[in-house]
Amino acid sequence: MILDRRICDKARLARDHRFDGLFFTGVRSTGIYCRPICPAPPPKPENIVYYSTAAAAADAGLRPCLRCRPEASPGSPAWNGTSATVSRALLLIRQGALRDGRVADLAAKLGVGDRHLRRLFTLHVGVSPTTLARTQKTLFAKRLLTETAMSISEIAFASGFGSIRRFNVAFRKIYGKAPSDLRQPIGGIEEQGGPGFRCALTLSYRPPLDWPRMLAFFAERAIPGVECVDNGVYHRTVRMDDTVGRISVTHTEEGPALKINVALSDCRKLMPVVARVRRMFDLDANMAAIHDVLRADPLLGKILEKHSGLRLPGAWDPFETAIRAVVGQQVSVKAARTIVGRIARKAGPRYDLGGHPALDRFFPTAAELSACDLDAIGMPSSRAVAIKALAGAVASEEIVLQVKDTPEDFVKTLTRIPGIGDWTAQYIAMRALSEPDAFPCADLGIIKALQEANRRPTPHQVRQRAESWRPWRAYAAICLWQGQG
Question: What is the pLDDT of residues 428-443, one digit of tens each?
Fold first, then answer.
């Protein structure tokens, strides 16, 4: 893999977690190599060498950094063969695949044996799958202990532990104390409609965040019956496997943070819910570093002066957002919203657990949508065929929208489906996968924003100009669209 030094420099200085595992920083003066998110002071540029894998850095005679532990970084999309298995496994673990510690079940989903999966984790991650999952669950449990009034048993199950005994053992191993010793409730159970389990959490972020514009983005695209925005709060129905419920998200008055109210039929889905919300509202991005790069372009700098804190709106459900992108081809946002609402009403199950009068529907899964007749929805037949093809490919796992891939490879895979072109695939990569460097260079809004006098740039010229915006071209697209508003 050939690394572009300019792009690596920007990503390293931003310490953006989305580039963790995509490359490694070798430091000649110290003889060590680091992850791009390493908290150590940045070395002098002349001492830096970039490597596409940790193995390449080690082969060059460099030692792993003791602070950021590059040997435990996520798998790089540049890996092939067995390393791609590790990359997918990491994502599934974050989504709770090892809630009960069954490595064999995880391995079966990946199409490998459990012993082989353990060997891959030892090689590429440095710890076993169960150790990684246990650490993740314990850290989340500590947050619940200090931020909520949930009971110890609720916290144990909400953090993904199969029993209170396992939770206590894991907690003592990491913190040297019993969970009750760290009990510092600062919140309470929220009184809201919906399923039985309810809690509220605060999700912090590094400013700036233009919350009104982020909220307006989701409000304009809210699927009737599935989601809505009112009085500064985003609401939606949620469905994860057999767990159903509702979430509400708003900005807190105290400090840079969002508050999420959760109502679920099963508390064991709380951790993946929080992870999805953080990604949906782009809470982990280093906006100061991203905007420093984009401001070098005079036009983007002018837009950011007016709209500081623009972030990349993500997605609650990648499949839902992919369908929205296909529907939205060559139609207005309002028209696309109407059509997607019809799809949800025709193919999605009813939501009748209360909590908000505007919410009465779940968005359909890929399997549900692929089996649905989309006649009389109000869109061209060719587009209905593309939607059915995409739903079928996702349902059969021919296309996996949750797996992080290089934008180029992802676009190639998606555009094999008739009716899905480069614009749609790039938009899906931006929103559904939160890919920071995806960029629809042929987008009419972007072309108009870059127009000088009466001369509109060609897509090729747009792509050339966008080279200086890498690796944050998706954020540049958001800025240009905002500038047209």
Answer: 999 998 888 899 999 9
* Active-site choice (34, 65, 228, 267): 34
Instruction: Report helix, strand or coil for 430.
Output: helix
Residue with tokens 């915006």: 469
Strands 197-204 and 257-264: antiparallel
H helices of 357-472, in order, are 366-370, 381-395, 407-414, 422-431, 444-449, 459-466
> Can you name the CATH fold of 5-72?
DNA Methylphosphotriester Repair Domain (3.40.10)
- According to the model, what pLDDT value does residue 100 have? 61
Q: Hey, what amino acid is at 59?
A: D
Helix or strand run (H / E) with residue 235: strand 233-240
Tell me if residue 292 is catalytic: no
Q: Which amino acid would we find at residue 340?
A: V
Catalytic residue from among 20, 282, 443, 479: 443
Other CB atoms within 10 Å distance of the CB of residue 375 = 8
Number of CB atoms found within 10 A of residue 484's CB:
11
Distance (Å, whole) CA 221 – CA 223: 6
Per-residue pLDDT tens for 20-79? 777 889 999 999 988 888 888 889 999 999 987 776 787 788 888 877 767 555 443 333
Angle between helix axes 473-483 and 287-294 (nearest 10 degrees) is 70
C-alpha span between 142 and 132 (Å, rounded)? 16
Q: Is 372 a catalytic residue?
A: no
Whole-angstrom distance, CA of residue 68 vs CA of residue 49 = 17
| C-alpha pair distances (Å), 389 with each of 321, 366, 369, 425 | 15, 10, 10, 14
For the chain, the domains span 5-72, 82-126, 132-182
Query: Coil, strand or helix: which one is 201?
Result: strand
Neighbours of 185 (CB within 10 A): 12
In Å, the largest CA–CA distance within the chain is 70
Give the separation between CA 344 and CA 183, rounded to whole angstroms: 42
Distance CA 159, CA 133 (A): 10
Question: 3-state DSSP call for residue 333?
Answer: helix
Comparing C-alpha atoms, which of 374, 384, 317, 326 is closest to residue 346?
374
Distance CA 390, CA 370 (A): 8
DSSP 197: E
Residue 485 CA to residue 470 CA, distance in Å, equals 24
3-state secondary structure of 405: coil
Look at phi and psi of residue 189 and say left if phi exceeds 0, alpha if psi is from -120 to 50, else beta. beta
Q: What is the pTM of this model?
A: 0.78
Q: Which CATH architecture has domain 132-182?
A: Orthogonal Bundle (1.10)
